[in-house]
Predict the structure.
Amino acid sequence: MLALMDYQTLRDLLPEFSQEIQQDRDLLDSLSLQTKTRNLIDFGPAALARLEAKAIRDFDIRRQLELTARANFDAQAQAHALTLTLMESRNHSDLARRLAKETQERFGLVTATIALEDTAPIPLGWMTLDYGGVDYIIGETELSVLGPDGVCRALFGEDVRRIKSAAVIRTAMWRDGRPGAVAFGSADYEGFTPDMGAELVAYVTRVVERIAERWPILS
């Protein structure tokens, strides 16, 4: 019978159950209603509050996405500008100097270094690793390590005291694929973390590799 009841009939019956309706919180919540006084039900605030809360959540998510996209764009633009500067390097020493200087100025890092294992002469201004040092730092099968595990004196020298986190990318230069690494050091514990992507620092590392291969290492 209730299913066949029209709206007007139902409306006429509601006043008889006003007390029960006002006390039925589940019913009022499902209808987005709120009791305002003993004899008045406010239809607006509950529904508006829900819409407002949803709008705030949507705005926060959208804002976060916009900030992330802008940060990624800015970082990529700085990486491209860094590439152009590195391409102007005159020799291995100049390449290492430019890499350190540009990463400090463009990304606020403590420093960035280029390292090679000590199986042949090491260019001036590059760091020296013992044989097997790259595998020891990064892992035998890994291409990179990000976080505090990459912080070591062999890669950063005296600057290691200021560095709290690092990104270390494996390299294999020249025809013999000589083992090495490019390391980026941050003074921030959250500067590089294991859950971060390594795409940007890997890109810079590949640029360093290609530029370094322009010149032979002089013994």
Summary: Residues 152 and 158 are 10 Å apart (CA to CA).
